[in-house]
Amino acid sequence: MKTRVFFLVVAISLVGGLFAGDVRAATLDQMRLFVGEQHARVMLVLDSPASEIQTRSTPRIGSIAARGSVTLEDMSASESFIEGFMSRDGVREFPVGQGGLQRILLTPGETDLKITVELDAPRDLKVTRVGDQVLLVDLIVPGAEQDRSLPTAEVLEAWVEGVSLGDVRKSTPGRRPLIVVDAGHGGIDPGAVGVTGTRESEVNLALALRVARQLEQQLDVDVALTRDTNRTVSLQERASFANARDADLFISIHANASPFQRVWGIETYHLDEARDADAKRLAARENTAGGAEDTSTQIEHQLLVSGTRTLSKRLADEIQTNTIARLTEVYGTELVNDLGTKTARFYVLASTRMPAILFESSFLSNPSDEMRLRSPAFQTVVASAIVEAVGRYLEEMGS
Q1: Is this prediction's pTM over 0.85?
Q2: What is the C-alpha separation between 104 and 102, in angstroms, rounded?
Q3: Mean pLDDT, the chain, whole residue set
Q4: Which residue, 27, 150, 238, 349, is most buried by CB atoms nearer than 10 A?
Protein backbone atom coordinates (compact mmCIF):
# COMPACT_ATOMS: atom_id res chain seq x y z
CA MET A 1 0.00 0.00 0.00
CA LYS A 2 1.36 3.39 -0.98
CA THR A 3 1.66 5.86 1.89
CA ARG A 4 0.79 9.47 1.16
CA VAL A 5 2.65 11.96 3.31
CA PHE A 6 0.87 15.28 3.30
CA PHE A 7 2.80 17.15 6.00
CA LEU A 8 6.36 17.48 4.82
CA VAL A 9 9.09 20.03 5.46
CA VAL A 10 12.28 19.78 3.44
CA ALA A 11 15.26 22.11 3.49
CA ILE A 12 17.24 22.22 0.26
CA SER A 13 20.61 23.97 0.16
CA LEU A 14 21.21 25.53 -3.24
CA VAL A 15 24.37 27.49 -2.52
CA GLY A 16 27.63 26.15 -1.18
CA GLY A 17 28.36 29.09 1.14
CA LEU A 18 28.45 28.26 4.87
CA PHE A 19 27.82 31.74 6.18
CA ALA A 20 24.79 33.98 5.66
CA GLY A 21 27.09 36.83 4.79
CA ASP A 22 28.26 34.91 1.72
CA VAL A 23 24.81 35.07 0.14
CA ARG A 24 23.34 38.21 -1.40
CA ALA A 25 19.59 38.61 -0.94
CA ALA A 26 17.95 37.49 -4.19
CA THR A 27 14.86 38.80 -5.94
CA LEU A 28 11.99 36.88 -7.51
CA ASP A 29 11.48 38.60 -10.86
CA GLN A 30 9.09 36.35 -12.77
CA MET A 31 6.79 33.39 -12.33
CA ARG A 32 5.33 31.13 -15.01
CA LEU A 33 2.65 28.50 -14.52
CA PHE A 34 2.17 25.46 -16.77
CA VAL A 35 -0.87 23.29 -16.04
CA GLY A 36 -1.32 19.74 -17.32
CA GLU A 37 -3.31 16.65 -16.42
CA GLN A 38 -2.72 15.94 -12.71
CA HIS A 39 0.55 17.88 -12.88
CA ALA A 40 1.35 21.59 -12.64
CA ARG A 41 4.77 23.16 -12.95
CA VAL A 42 5.61 26.58 -11.52
CA MET A 43 8.76 28.24 -12.79
CA LEU A 44 10.35 30.86 -10.52
CA VAL A 45 12.90 33.15 -12.17
CA LEU A 46 15.37 34.80 -9.80
CA ASP A 47 18.00 37.46 -10.34
CA SER A 48 20.57 35.40 -8.41
CA PRO A 49 20.72 31.96 -6.73
CA ALA A 50 18.45 31.23 -3.77
CA SER A 51 20.22 30.36 -0.52
CA GLU A 52 17.79 27.93 1.08
CA ILE A 53 14.33 26.54 0.37
CA GLN A 54 11.70 25.02 2.62
CA THR A 55 8.72 23.18 1.16
CA ARG A 56 5.51 22.08 2.81
CA SER A 57 2.45 20.14 1.60
CA THR A 58 -0.81 20.10 3.57
CA PRO A 59 -4.23 18.48 2.99
CA ARG A 60 -7.58 20.24 3.00
CA ILE A 61 -8.74 21.08 6.52
CA GLY A 62 -12.40 22.06 6.70
CA SER A 63 -12.90 25.08 4.45
CA ILE A 64 -9.14 25.63 4.10
CA ALA A 65 -7.82 24.39 0.75
CA ALA A 66 -5.00 21.90 0.38
CA ARG A 67 -1.71 23.69 -0.09
CA GLY A 68 1.77 23.34 -1.47
CA SER A 69 4.15 26.04 -0.31
CA VAL A 70 7.74 27.04 -0.96
CA THR A 71 9.60 29.42 1.35
CA LEU A 72 12.70 31.09 -0.08
CA GLU A 73 15.20 32.43 2.45
CA ASP A 74 16.97 35.76 1.79
CA MET A 75 14.40 36.48 -0.92
CA SER A 76 12.04 39.30 -1.89
CA ALA A 77 9.75 39.93 -4.87
CA SER A 78 10.49 42.73 -7.33
CA GLU A 79 7.99 45.58 -7.47
CA SER A 80 7.30 45.05 -11.18
CA PHE A 81 6.51 41.39 -10.54
CA ILE A 82 4.01 41.84 -7.70
CA GLU A 83 2.04 44.47 -9.64
CA GLY A 84 0.04 41.64 -11.22
CA PHE A 85 -1.11 40.37 -7.81
CA MET A 86 -4.03 41.67 -5.78
CA SER A 87 -3.09 42.78 -2.26
CA ARG A 88 -5.07 41.62 0.75
CA ASP A 89 -3.86 42.04 4.35
CA GLY A 90 -0.22 42.08 3.29
CA VAL A 91 -0.59 38.94 1.16
CA ARG A 92 -0.47 39.10 -2.62
CA GLU A 93 -3.14 36.96 -4.28
CA PHE A 94 -3.32 35.65 -7.83
CA PRO A 95 -6.43 33.70 -9.00
CA VAL A 96 -5.82 30.61 -11.14
CA GLY A 97 -8.95 28.42 -11.26
CA GLN A 98 -7.48 25.83 -13.61
CA GLY A 99 -6.41 22.18 -13.44
CA GLY A 100 -7.05 21.78 -9.72
CA LEU A 101 -5.18 24.96 -8.79
CA GLN A 102 -7.26 27.64 -7.09
CA ARG A 103 -4.90 30.54 -6.52
CA ILE A 104 -1.30 31.50 -5.76
CA LEU A 105 -0.35 33.56 -2.71
CA LEU A 106 2.83 35.55 -2.09
CA THR A 107 3.61 36.21 1.58
CA PRO A 108 6.69 38.38 2.23
CA GLY A 109 8.51 37.96 5.55
CA GLU A 110 11.32 39.94 7.11
CA THR A 111 14.00 37.81 5.45
CA ASP A 112 12.06 35.38 3.28
CA LEU A 113 9.31 35.01 0.69
CA LYS A 114 6.62 32.32 0.79
CA ILE A 115 4.87 31.14 -2.38
CA THR A 116 1.72 29.12 -1.69
CA VAL A 117 -0.40 27.27 -4.23
CA GLU A 118 -3.93 26.49 -3.01
CA LEU A 119 -5.21 23.21 -4.46
CA ASP A 120 -8.45 21.27 -4.81
CA ALA A 121 -6.68 18.22 -3.35
CA PRO A 122 -3.22 17.48 -1.88
CA ARG A 123 -0.28 17.00 -4.23
CA ASP A 124 3.29 15.81 -3.98
CA LEU A 125 5.65 18.78 -4.18
CA LYS A 126 9.17 18.78 -5.55
CA VAL A 127 11.61 21.66 -6.14
CA THR A 128 14.34 21.39 -8.78
CA ARG A 129 17.12 23.86 -9.47
CA VAL A 130 17.68 24.72 -13.16
CA GLY A 131 20.84 26.74 -13.62
CA ASP A 132 21.43 29.69 -11.30
CA GLN A 133 18.25 31.63 -12.03
CA VAL A 134 15.41 29.13 -12.14
CA LEU A 135 13.55 26.98 -9.65
CA LEU A 136 10.93 24.51 -10.85
CA VAL A 137 8.15 23.63 -8.44
CA ASP A 138 6.30 20.47 -9.50
CA LEU A 139 2.88 19.70 -8.00
CA ILE A 140 1.76 16.19 -8.92
CA VAL A 141 -1.31 14.21 -7.88
CA PRO A 142 -0.01 11.32 -5.70
CA GLY A 143 0.54 8.22 -7.83
CA ALA A 144 0.27 10.12 -11.13
CA GLU A 145 2.98 10.31 -13.78
CA GLN A 146 4.66 13.53 -14.84
CA ASP A 147 2.76 15.22 -17.66
CA ARG A 148 4.91 15.00 -20.79
CA SER A 149 3.07 17.93 -22.39
CA LEU A 150 4.62 20.37 -19.89
CA PRO A 151 7.86 22.16 -20.84
CA THR A 152 10.91 20.26 -19.63
CA ALA A 153 13.63 21.74 -17.45
CA GLU A 154 15.88 22.00 -20.53
CA VAL A 155 13.22 23.91 -22.47
CA LEU A 156 12.59 26.33 -19.63
CA GLU A 157 16.28 26.97 -19.11
CA ALA A 158 16.60 27.78 -22.81
CA TRP A 159 13.63 30.15 -22.51
CA VAL A 160 15.31 32.06 -19.68
CA GLU A 161 18.31 32.49 -21.97
CA GLY A 162 16.07 34.10 -24.60
CA VAL A 163 14.93 31.21 -26.80
CA SER A 164 11.26 30.81 -27.68
CA LEU A 165 9.48 27.97 -25.90
CA GLY A 166 7.97 27.03 -29.22
CA ASP A 167 11.31 27.01 -31.01
CA VAL A 168 12.87 24.65 -28.47
CA ARG A 169 9.87 22.33 -28.25
CA LYS A 170 9.42 22.09 -32.01
CA SER A 171 13.01 21.92 -33.24
CA THR A 172 12.14 19.51 -36.02
CA PRO A 173 14.68 19.60 -38.88
CA GLY A 174 13.23 21.38 -41.91
CA ARG A 175 10.22 22.75 -40.08
CA ARG A 176 9.29 26.27 -41.16
CA PRO A 177 8.11 28.86 -38.62
CA LEU A 178 4.33 29.36 -38.58
CA ILE A 179 3.08 32.93 -38.26
CA VAL A 180 -0.57 33.66 -37.47
CA VAL A 181 -1.81 37.00 -38.78
CA ASP A 182 -4.94 38.23 -37.05
CA ALA A 183 -7.18 40.86 -38.68
CA GLY A 184 -8.95 42.45 -35.73
CA HIS A 185 -12.76 42.69 -35.51
CA GLY A 186 -14.97 41.65 -38.47
CA GLY A 187 -18.52 40.49 -39.18
CA ILE A 188 -20.99 41.94 -36.69
CA ASP A 189 -18.10 43.75 -34.98
CA PRO A 190 -16.93 46.65 -37.19
CA GLY A 191 -14.44 47.93 -34.63
CA ALA A 192 -13.78 51.67 -34.66
CA VAL A 193 -15.50 53.78 -37.31
CA GLY A 194 -13.63 56.67 -38.92
CA VAL A 195 -14.75 60.26 -39.31
CA THR A 196 -15.92 59.55 -42.87
CA GLY A 197 -17.30 56.09 -42.10
CA THR A 198 -14.26 53.85 -42.66
CA ARG A 199 -14.67 50.62 -40.72
CA GLU A 200 -11.74 49.31 -38.77
CA SER A 201 -12.62 45.69 -39.60
CA GLU A 202 -12.17 46.43 -43.32
CA VAL A 203 -8.88 48.29 -42.90
CA ASN A 204 -7.53 45.56 -40.63
CA LEU A 205 -8.39 42.84 -43.13
CA ALA A 206 -6.84 44.71 -46.06
CA LEU A 207 -3.58 45.24 -44.18
CA ALA A 208 -3.53 41.70 -42.75
CA LEU A 209 -3.93 40.20 -46.23
CA ARG A 210 -1.01 42.28 -47.49
CA VAL A 211 1.15 41.22 -44.53
CA ALA A 212 0.28 37.55 -45.02
CA ARG A 213 0.97 37.67 -48.75
CA GLN A 214 4.34 39.38 -48.31
CA LEU A 215 5.36 37.01 -45.52
CA GLU A 216 4.78 34.06 -47.83
CA GLN A 217 6.57 35.72 -50.73
CA GLN A 218 9.59 37.11 -48.90
CA LEU A 219 10.28 34.78 -45.94
CA ASP A 220 10.69 31.03 -45.58
CA VAL A 221 7.62 30.73 -43.32
CA ASP A 222 4.11 29.34 -43.25
CA VAL A 223 1.24 31.76 -42.67
CA ALA A 224 -2.27 31.32 -41.32
CA LEU A 225 -4.99 33.99 -41.10
CA THR A 226 -7.57 34.01 -38.31
CA ARG A 227 -9.96 35.42 -40.92
CA ASP A 228 -9.62 36.20 -44.62
CA THR A 229 -13.16 37.54 -45.12
CA ASN A 230 -15.48 39.90 -43.28
CA ARG A 231 -16.70 37.40 -40.69
CA THR A 232 -17.14 37.36 -36.93
CA VAL A 233 -14.36 35.71 -34.92
CA SER A 234 -14.34 35.93 -31.12
CA LEU A 235 -11.20 36.74 -29.18
CA GLN A 236 -11.23 33.24 -27.69
CA GLU A 237 -11.39 31.72 -31.19
CA ARG A 238 -8.47 33.83 -32.38
CA ALA A 239 -6.24 32.74 -29.50
CA SER A 240 -7.36 29.10 -29.80
CA PHE A 241 -6.64 29.21 -33.55
CA ALA A 242 -3.00 30.13 -32.91
CA ASN A 243 -2.53 27.81 -29.94
CA ALA A 244 -4.02 24.78 -31.71
CA ARG A 245 -1.55 25.24 -34.56
CA ASP A 246 1.38 25.74 -32.18
CA ALA A 247 2.28 28.92 -34.03
CA ASP A 248 5.65 30.60 -33.57
CA LEU A 249 4.39 34.20 -33.78
CA PHE A 250 1.03 35.94 -33.46
CA ILE A 251 0.54 39.35 -35.11
CA SER A 252 -2.77 41.11 -34.53
CA ILE A 253 -3.56 44.01 -36.88
CA HIS A 254 -5.78 46.87 -35.67
CA ALA A 255 -6.57 50.54 -36.28
CA ASN A 256 -6.83 52.94 -33.38
CA ALA A 257 -9.42 55.50 -32.26
CA SER A 258 -9.51 58.32 -29.73
CA PRO A 259 -12.19 60.66 -28.36
CA PHE A 260 -9.96 63.50 -29.60
CA GLN A 261 -9.52 63.95 -33.37
CA ARG A 262 -6.12 65.59 -32.92
CA VAL A 263 -4.58 62.31 -31.67
CA TRP A 264 -2.69 60.46 -34.41
CA GLY A 265 0.20 58.09 -34.97
CA ILE A 266 1.33 54.47 -34.82
CA GLU A 267 1.98 52.23 -31.84
CA THR A 268 2.68 48.56 -31.14
CA TYR A 269 1.65 46.63 -28.03
CA HIS A 270 2.96 43.61 -26.20
CA LEU A 271 1.58 42.00 -23.06
CA ASP A 272 2.17 43.54 -19.66
CA GLU A 273 0.50 45.86 -17.18
CA ALA A 274 -0.91 48.95 -18.95
CA ARG A 275 1.30 51.93 -18.10
CA ASP A 276 -1.10 54.75 -18.95
CA ALA A 277 -4.82 55.52 -19.08
CA ASP A 278 -5.00 55.42 -22.88
CA ALA A 279 -3.54 51.91 -23.02
CA LYS A 280 -6.00 50.69 -20.37
CA ARG A 281 -8.89 52.30 -22.25
CA LEU A 282 -7.85 50.75 -25.54
CA ALA A 283 -7.41 47.26 -24.08
CA ALA A 284 -10.78 47.47 -22.33
CA ARG A 285 -12.48 48.52 -25.57
CA GLU A 286 -10.89 45.77 -27.65
CA ASN A 287 -11.51 43.07 -25.04
CA THR A 288 -15.16 44.01 -24.61
CA ALA A 289 -15.85 44.33 -28.33
CA GLY A 290 -14.26 40.95 -29.01
CA GLY A 291 -16.47 39.06 -26.59
CA ALA A 292 -13.92 38.18 -23.91
CA GLU A 293 -15.73 37.17 -20.72
CA ASP A 294 -14.44 37.86 -17.22
CA THR A 295 -11.54 39.67 -18.84
CA SER A 296 -9.55 40.88 -15.85
CA THR A 297 -9.28 37.47 -14.19
CA GLN A 298 -8.50 35.61 -17.41
CA ILE A 299 -5.86 38.06 -18.51
CA GLU A 300 -4.19 38.27 -15.10
CA HIS A 301 -4.03 34.48 -15.07
CA GLN A 302 -2.56 34.32 -18.54
CA LEU A 303 0.11 36.86 -17.60
CA LEU A 304 1.44 34.12 -15.37
CA VAL A 305 1.09 31.42 -17.99
CA SER A 306 2.48 33.02 -21.12
CA GLY A 307 6.24 32.64 -20.67
CA THR A 308 7.07 34.74 -23.74
CA ARG A 309 6.90 38.34 -22.53
CA THR A 310 10.54 39.19 -23.27
CA LEU A 311 10.31 37.79 -26.78
CA SER A 312 7.05 39.64 -27.44
CA LYS A 313 8.66 42.90 -26.41
CA ARG A 314 11.57 42.26 -28.75
CA LEU A 315 9.18 41.60 -31.65
CA ALA A 316 7.08 44.68 -30.82
CA ASP A 317 10.17 46.90 -30.68
CA GLU A 318 11.39 45.54 -34.01
CA ILE A 319 8.06 46.11 -35.77
CA GLN A 320 7.47 49.58 -34.32
CA THR A 321 10.99 50.83 -35.06
CA ASN A 322 11.07 49.47 -38.60
CA THR A 323 7.57 50.70 -39.49
CA ILE A 324 8.36 54.24 -38.36
CA ALA A 325 11.66 54.20 -40.26
CA ARG A 326 10.08 53.01 -43.52
CA LEU A 327 7.15 55.46 -43.33
CA THR A 328 9.54 58.33 -42.57
CA GLU A 329 11.48 57.51 -45.74
CA VAL A 330 8.26 57.79 -47.77
CA TYR A 331 6.28 60.55 -46.03
CA GLY A 332 8.93 62.54 -44.16
CA THR A 333 9.42 63.13 -40.45
CA GLU A 334 6.61 65.68 -40.02
CA LEU A 335 3.95 63.29 -41.34
CA VAL A 336 4.91 60.29 -39.18
CA ASN A 337 4.13 60.18 -35.46
CA ASP A 338 5.93 57.49 -33.47
CA LEU A 339 3.85 56.66 -30.38
CA GLY A 340 6.28 53.92 -29.45
CA THR A 341 6.03 50.42 -28.06
CA LYS A 342 3.49 50.08 -25.26
CA THR A 343 2.04 47.47 -22.93
CA ALA A 344 -1.55 46.49 -22.14
CA ARG A 345 -3.62 43.44 -21.22
CA PHE A 346 -5.19 42.62 -24.55
CA TYR A 347 -6.99 39.29 -24.38
CA VAL A 348 -5.46 37.93 -27.59
CA LEU A 349 -1.96 38.68 -26.33
CA ALA A 350 -2.60 37.16 -22.92
CA SER A 351 -4.26 34.01 -24.24
CA THR A 352 -1.76 33.03 -26.92
CA ARG A 353 1.19 30.83 -25.95
CA MET A 354 3.74 32.25 -28.40
CA PRO A 355 5.39 35.68 -28.80
CA ALA A 356 2.51 38.01 -29.72
CA ILE A 357 2.02 41.67 -30.56
CA LEU A 358 -0.87 43.97 -31.43
CA PHE A 359 -0.13 46.59 -34.08
CA GLU A 360 -2.19 49.82 -34.19
CA SER A 361 -1.72 51.08 -37.73
CA SER A 362 -3.06 54.65 -37.17
CA PHE A 363 -6.13 56.49 -35.81
CA LEU A 364 -9.39 56.28 -37.72
CA SER A 365 -10.66 59.11 -35.53
CA ASN A 366 -8.08 61.45 -37.08
CA PRO A 367 -9.04 62.68 -40.61
CA SER A 368 -5.50 62.53 -42.00
CA ASP A 369 -4.75 59.14 -40.49
CA GLU A 370 -8.05 57.77 -41.76
CA MET A 371 -7.30 58.92 -45.29
CA ARG A 372 -3.90 57.24 -45.26
CA LEU A 373 -5.26 54.04 -43.76
CA ARG A 374 -7.54 53.68 -46.78
CA SER A 375 -4.63 54.15 -49.18
CA PRO A 376 -3.22 50.97 -50.81
CA ALA A 377 0.18 52.68 -51.02
CA PHE A 378 0.25 53.31 -47.26
CA GLN A 379 -0.88 49.75 -46.55
CA THR A 380 1.85 48.36 -48.79
CA VAL A 381 4.61 50.33 -47.05
CA VAL A 382 3.35 49.30 -43.60
CA ALA A 383 3.02 45.64 -44.60
CA SER A 384 6.53 45.61 -46.06
CA ALA A 385 7.91 47.17 -42.88
CA ILE A 386 6.20 44.58 -40.68
CA VAL A 387 7.45 41.70 -42.81
CA GLU A 388 10.98 43.07 -42.85
CA ALA A 389 10.88 43.37 -39.05
CA VAL A 390 9.59 39.82 -38.66
CA GLY A 391 12.38 38.56 -40.90
CA ARG A 392 14.97 40.32 -38.79
CA TYR A 393 13.43 38.97 -35.58
CA LEU A 394 13.42 35.39 -36.90
CA GLU A 395 17.03 35.74 -38.00
CA GLU A 396 18.03 36.94 -34.52
CA MET A 397 16.16 33.99 -32.99
CA GLY A 398 17.91 31.58 -35.29
CA SER A 399 14.73 30.40 -37.07
Answers
A1: no
A2: 7
A3: 81
A4: 349
